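Incident log, structure service

09:12 report received: a user says their structure output differs between two submissions of the same chain.
09:20 pulled the input from the user's history:
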Amino acid sequence: MGITRKTKSIDTLLSEFENKSGAISATALIKSLHSKLNKTTVYRVLDKLEDDGVLHSFLDKNGQKCYAQCKGCTKSAHIDGHPHFQCFECEKIDCLPLDVYIPVIPKREIKTYQILIQGKCEACLAKK
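09:34 re-ran on a clean worker, output below:
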C-alpha cells in the first residue's frame, strides 16, 4: 500500500472496508459516514486511496462508482485486475479471484479494464 500520510479521514473510510469482502458504492459510503465525514471529504479520500493503490474502482450495473480494496497494487501500478460479480436481487458486489486474459489490441495500449458479471449470488439462489 502506498498511503503517504495517514489521517483520521483515511482511517475512518478504510474502516468501512475492514470487514467487507466485496465492494462498496461511493453513495453507500457517503450515507454510512455522513455523521463523520462530509461528501466532499469522502470523494477526496476515495480519489487519494485509489491514486495510492489502496482501492480500485469500477462502475456497477446502475452506473454508480464502487470501490474495493486492492491486493498487491502500488501508487505506480494497479496490478489487481479482476472481474466483479453483482447480484440482481440483493445487489451485493464481490471481487472474483479469477485471472482474466485481456488480449493485446494492435496499435492500442490498455491501461485499465472493467468486467462486471451479473446474476444471482449463492445466498439468493438458496432462497428458492
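09:41 both user submissions now match this output. Likely a transient worker issue. Closing.
09:42 reviewer note: The longest helix spans residues 39-51. Residues 8-126 form a domain with the Arc Repressor Mutant, subunit A fold (CATH 1.10.10.10).
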